[in-house]
Amino acid sequence: MLPNLIKGQIYSVSIVSKVLGFVPILVICVGCSGKFDTISEPDDSRKLSSASVALALPSQNRTPPTTTTPSTTTTTSASTSTTTTAGPPASCASTPRRFHVAAVRMHSTSFAYSSFQAKLDKAKSAVNSILQKYGKEVDLIVTPEWTFTTSESNEYPDYALDVSCDNSFTNCHLKEGGGNHSAASLLAVNGMIDLAVKNNLTMFLGTIIERVSTETITGAGSPYTFFNTMLIVSPNGTISIRRKISEDWTIPGCRHGDTCHIAPAKLANDTLRSIQTTNRCGVTLKSLVTICAEVGYRDLIKNLLAANVTENDLHIHSERQGDMQFENLTIAIQNGTWSTTSFEWINFGKYFMNSLLSSSVMKHGSHLIVSEGAYSTAGIVQLSSTPQPVRRYELNADFVFGYLP
Q1: Rounded to whole angstroms, how far apart are CA atoms 137 and 200?
Q2: What is the pLDDT of residues 46-95, one digit of tens each?
Q3: I want to staple 188 with a disulfide (CB 3.0 to 4.6 A). Which of 10, 32, 120, 232 is the partner?
């Protein structure tokens, strides 16, 4: 029992009066073998400071690739992508499976590290740790908010990237945004994109700072405004984006693009949609993507329904906040020690799980996958009044991993 676990304002309340017990399933995990790609340490001749990276990588346009290998052919069009492989792993035929998922555990806030590069190195190390053990089976990886940037809004321009997308935000190109740390951020992101392609997995990369022109925004205080943006990288390298909605954008005296760097909510809402995510066995699930405190944004559910973002199987959540302790809840579910009274499970504080389920944004029995950066936690939680433990569960210093039932 972990009393007082959930903090924050409760947006909707539903009490489950009877808790159904269950017996946790013990699954013995046998380590995987085989070769997979990780990020290796460069030799000294390739180690670049942030300043020298800007010279070595003048624009670093990132274009979704068209690649051909002996076993895989990938093609990409303006708004869709198709990957054809030589066939699913042998385990797909013998074991019905959905998704193997992992969420990174790392402090994503700048104060936790001696430098921005130290934070990027930690992200690289954590993802390598996942791939070293589960590189042939993990289907998706989530990183915390602010992993590839600062959390200080007055410093956004120093870390900004320019992102050009199609009208549906499902095929995007990246390049430096002119800041002192833009090159280092882009270099780290490109490394993760390469890993997604080489290891045939999806990455939800939280987050970058996206620089957007204010040319069409009335009353803007500068030529640019800045979004806190998640990148969704498909196994074939196609990049799509999801911009964070900030309820603070109407603060009096804080104009779009001035030193507050608050971005218009409408331009963020334009990126709302379900993400189609396909695993190694060809199973496709719909994913809702959210970033930190926007789950408490009062119009979020209304806007999701308006964009037909419904009946999602996965809720991918990248945050810094750290006040909801999803990891402790995950541990309790795995141990069979949770209860509706001790965890306020059906309410879930600011997450307002009941509203997401009752509105049909999320399916009953779907899963929440969280990577949180304030306290270096992560969680995998079934959205149900009787949540079941995930299989092949592992929680260590670098990540949480599980096989969704």
Answers
A1: 9
A2: 333 333 222 223 334 544 444 333 344 343 333 333 333 335 776 777 66
A3: 120
CA distance 359 to 366: 14
Please calculate the CA angle 392-394-399 and round it to the nearest 5 degrees: 130
Beta-ladder partners of 403: 100, 391
Residues sharing a CB contact under 8 Å with residue 304, sequence separation 6 or more, in sequence order: 272, 288, 310, 359, 361
Q: Residue 75: left if φ>0, alpha if ψ -120 to 50, beta else—which one?
A: beta
Tell me which residue has tokens 């037909």. 308
Cβ-in-10-Å burial (0-12, 13-18, 19+) of 216 comes to exposed
Q: Residue 57's pLDDT is what?
A: 30
> What residues have CB less than 8 Å from 375, skipping those under 6 apart?
107, 322
Tokens at 19, concatenated: 């808790």
| Cα torsion 123, 124, 129, 135: sign | positive
Question: Of 396, 283, 381, whose CA–CA distance to 332 is shortest?
Answer: 381
Beta bridge partners of 103: 142, 400
**Does a cis peptide bond (omega within 30 degrees of 0) precede residue 337?**
no
Query: Any residues with CB less than 8 A from the CB of 80 and at least 6 apart, and which?
Result: 170
Which own/partner pairs from 227-230 qualify as long-range (CB within 8 Å, at least 24 positions apart)? 227/263, 227/267, 227/268, 228/145, 228/146, 228/149, 228/263, 228/291, 229/163, 230/204, 230/205, 230/206, 230/289, 230/291, 230/318
In the DSSP assignment, the letter for residue 294 is G
What does the H/E/C string look like for 313-382? EEEEEEECCCCCCHHHHHHHHHHCCCCHHHHCCCCCHHHCHHHHHHCCCEEEEEEEEEEECCCCEEEEEE
DSSP helix/strand/coil, 118: helix
Q: Which residues pair with 366 in a beta bridge?
A: 383
> At which residue do the structure tokens 């800007």 appear?
54
pTM: 0.77
Helical ranges in 199-299 per DSSP H: 265-269
* C-alpha gyration radius of the chain: 21
104 vs 27: CA distance, rounded Å: 22
Does residue 35 sit in helix, strand or coil?
A: coil
